[in-house]
């Protein structure tokens, strides 16, 4: 008898896993944009029109569906007009007090999205900006021709308007975006969004600035006062094993207790989605408004010796398990959760990629995004799991989680993670509705040590390997998962 039993109903679809759940976020913060993505055309680092080639190629591999920019807190002090045509510098007050050159602006961001073949998600400035400024940015980007802003865009080298699908009306307006009360922000939201207009056939999905973690009142007020004027409402939640102000804990030097608490806090996103979702259901029972989790991921103390304002942290197998656990939860809520954006893509917080000069490495989190991309836009299959506990010092968590989806061509992908840092897990999975044997393959991401990570001298220390610790006989799948592992099993349709 296996410890864990699951039934996947291969012929019952519970919903569609919106590919935007696999979205990203890149802010003008530390070395996230400058160095990480943008090196400029004069750089010795190989680049395409200023965007570093190695990073671009690695990110393309992930099939990023949507990229959020320019912040974060930075968004509510960003004045877009300084970042087009003749650039004007500004002070980046939130992140290290650096001078922002504005070399990377709207044109460069849109070019990046075109190269990545992803949708841009731009966050506008409510905190320190004006309605006019926001309205003109939309006009600049999306109006065809003959207006002051569209003509300025053309003068600056972009003939055609861009397609802009996602637009956020402010960020964290309860905090760095203006320290507002929800009632005040809800009114401002109503006002600002009025001028976020659809021009030249462009249709904007408007996202209201949402709650911090468990501020359910914020969600309630926003839904009550403005649900009809929004397409999405955001939510921010970071996995922090320690205390936000007193010490979050190290990204690499942590104890078993910290491993457990990290997993526990990662799983908390499930409760948050349910509770915010219940409030949203009250005002929007049809679930039209998306819950947009546009900042999530681990947040640890910055790497020793780095600028604390740059939020640069290493990334271990622990981060990989946090990412995989989040995705399994997001899939479960795929009706309400229409988009999420991990913070952040390169060199900041739970990054996919770290760079040092001309060198770069892919983090364990990158590999999870790469393995899980098969779920993008796939049909979520009905899955039931009876699993035993991962116990640590009298506390428990479910040891494994599982998610299965079917692609349009019929391939079934099953991802499983074992968050237990000490014990392996054996799972027996019945694949109901699977009548014939299927050609199959497995991939695993795991490590011997809790803090295993990639360094610039050893960039492939943690990487996916082929996985064979499973058997498939008729419709019974038996899998042995090592401690701290993420597995992807693919059953091919055409076999
Ligand atoms: O991602 C880092 C910061 O975290 C963002 O700028 C802000 O929105 C959040 O507090």
Secondary-structure blueprint:
Elements: E1 4-16, E2 23-25, E3 47-48, E4 51-52, H1 53-61, E5 66-69, E6 90-92, E7 98-100, H2 106-116, E8 119-124, H3 131-142, H4 148-155, E9 166-169, H5 182-194, E10 205-212, H6 216-226, E11 232-239, H7 256-283, E12 290-298, H8 317-332, E13 337-343, E14 353-356, E15 359-362, H9 364-372, E16 379-386, E17 389-392, E18 395-398, E19 400-406, E20 412-418, E21 425-432, E22 439-446, E23 465-466, E24 470-473, E25 476-481, E26 485-492
Parallel strand pairs: 1-21, 2-5, 2-13, 5-8, 8-9, 9-10, 10-11, 11-12, 12-13
Antiparallel strand pairs: 1-16, 3-4, 6-7, 14-15, 16-19, 17-18, 19-20, 20-26, 21-25, 22-23, 22-26, 24-25
Helix pairs in contact: 3-4, 5-6, 6-7, 7-8, 8-9
The structure holds alpha-L-arabinofuranose (AHR).
Would you give an account of this structure?
This protein is of the alpha/beta class. The chain folds into 2 domains: 4-11 and 380-492, Immunoglobulin-like (Sandwich), CATH 2.60.40; 18-377, Alpha-Beta Barrel (TIM Barrel), CATH 3.20.20.80. 24% of the residues lie in helices and 29% in strands. It is built from 9 helices and 26 strands. It has helices at residues 53-61, 106-116, 131-142, 148-155, 182-194, 216-226, 256-283, 317-332, 364-372; strands spanning 4-16, 23-25, 47-48, 51-52, 66-69, 90-92, 98-100, 119-124, 166-169, 205-212, 232-239, 290-298, 337-343, 353-356, 359-362, 379-386, 389-392, 395-398, 400-406, 412-418, 425-432, 439-446, 465-466, 470-473, 476-481, 485-492. Strands 23-22-26-20-19-16-1-21-25-24 form a 10-stranded mixed sheet, with helices on one face. An 8-stranded parallel barrel has the order 2-5-8-9-10-11-12-13, surrounded by 5 helices. Strands 3-4 form a two-stranded antiparallel ribbon. β14 (353-356) and β15 form a beta hairpin. α3 (131-142) crosses α4, α5 packs across α6 (216-226) and α6 packs parallel to α7 (256-283). The longest helix has 28 residues, at 256-283. It is globular. It starts with a strand and ends with a strand. Alpha-L-arabinofuranose (AHR) binds next to loops. Alpha-L-arabinofuranose (AHR) binds at residues 27, 71-73, 171-172, 295, 343-344, 349.
